Fold each of these.
Amino acid sequence: MALRQAAMSGPSLRNILSGYKVFLMIWPCLLWMTTACIEEYTPEISRSQQLLIVDGGITSEPGPYTVRLSLSKGIQDVFTEPVSGAVVVIEEKNGSSEVLSEVDPGRYETATGGITGKIGNEYRISITHNDEGYESAWMLLKDCPPIDSLYWMRERHQGVNGEIDGIQWYIDTHDPDNNTRYYRWEYIEDWAFSVPISSSWNPTLCYAHNPSSGIIIGSTEKFTDDLLLKHPITYVDHTTTRLTLRYRIIVIQHAITEEEFRYWEALEELNENLGTLFDPIPAEIYGNIRNVTNPDRSVLGYFTSSTVRTDTMYVDAEEFANAPIYFDSPYGFCNFVVIAGDRNPAISNYYRAGWLLADTIRDAGILYTTMANSRYCFDCTTAGNADPPADWIPLNPGNQ
């Protein structure tokens, strides 16, 4: 399920644009214009004007597929509110269609066993809400070549506070027919981690999950061969718990159209260039969806259509035995105290000071009580799940 959900659409538009209210501002300069604008222009648009945001798509993998609808609360706000009560339809050109069901506020899904993308066919989304209709362009579902190789290399990168150690993930891929040219990737991370002490009633081994939220795209349009080598996917460094026990990455490769590539490219450029006085002034970035009732009203987001290929790889801490990675422990603030005795008044004193009971054990007739200054220090469910992913392969039976 996690893989299917991640492969259905691009990275969450809300995640990518969080913090960038300029995305929702209309400027007179187009992103690709080569001439610079001298004066900033802010149009006279009511802050109460709301823009529809569409985030979803269809792939060649079996559904259900998810479409998220939200409204920006104002032209300069990044905060959104879910859109409920809309009629959302995914259509196949000259073929079937399906009305999605609203499963949560603003989140619409196809049925299990419902419409499925087919290579070479075209698809679009249509939306009706508050007597206004919206449609995407017809999107070709292109075939996607497999990932030739998924691998990592030990690298040191420059971080904000100095050099960081970790592993850089890369992929190699190619299309022998030279038909793909435009690619997008997502990934899903899962990893096992443990807390500093064991507890008789709290789990100490847990699993964390993290789907990618950024933009990862690549193109071979400038090359003779449709070949990408050593294309970076993500960097995993020593400041997290990801590599402390067992780590897994699932990389999802999409074959996309040139139009979709330009959309993600524009968002990526906006993401990278914000921050200085001399950066280009960004424009509102339009996707492939329009308001057919009122064409003057903008619509944000993109309806995606692509075939997907995946590759999976595990990394274990023992692989760094000869060249250790020295991790920054997230438990450096943790403090523990062990108190002996059944009715030791020190226990009540620690309770009053806000400490928590982490564990008790009786040895040779003496009760030993362990107190901790935070539940995070002894209960791993505060940062993960006690149950591994359903398809998780443990390093050793009964282990992580």
Amino acid sequence: MEASAKKTTIWTRFDNRHSPLLLKIDDSSPGAVLFRMNTFNPSTLSKNPLTLTTAIFLSCATLLPIPAFAAGVEGGYGKTPNATEGTVSSWPTGKKLIALTYDDGPNTKVTQPLMDLLESEGVPATFYLLGQTAKANPKLTAEIQRRGFEVGNHSWSHPQLTKLGVDGIKSQLQRANDAMTAPRPVTTMRPPYGAHNATVRRVCSDMGFSVILWDVDTNDWRKGTTAEKIVKTVLEEAKDGSIILMHDRLPTTVPATRQIIAELKKRGYTFVTVSQLLAQPRLSAKKP
């Protein structure tokens, strides 16, 4: 189905750790988004939830017209656009599935008790690791994977990848992958600050990574953000197919996660890893 030829202009603000970005969106053409996914064994959501095969398959999903950002940089902490070519920020399935994700680890004070909590609740999760942190904590990095959690690539040192060239982006991602020594293929990545452009997406595709963003930003890293505020944000915004962004380096992470799990379970949600979520058939966007 062809989209309307009418052109609209939208100004959208995204906040990152350093400064707000005011971006102009000119929406003028339809497009399709290409995702790379893993197969997995859907029969288990146990303590070892992620059963990957070596096969990787491609799937296309036609979306609403894709916005072209005038500044050339897409994403940023805050609300992340849902219909951006080559990225995933949510994956509705009609099955009330939700993915918890944690960035910037592993952290020696937070990651271990967080894993203990998740395991005790039978909840899978995805950890987007920094390569330099993973290398500094090899035993903890191995423990994350040994216990069956999914690991994803969050770059080596958390630069804004859109400011790097092709070689710089490849180096950041390859060094991070090498530091993880993952027993399973690492096939998803999350760009630092959520910032991506055509070059970042192309490099990620060439290296076999799906670019994973989020649709629920807890803003847990902001000064003064309490566990209660994090929980409130999640309960107000979470829906079927949500990918929730948190960080496993903060004192609020474990208590907030405990409440989030309890409340979302009461609402009938099932927790999955990002790869498990993407392996499910995606509901088509409703016609306007």
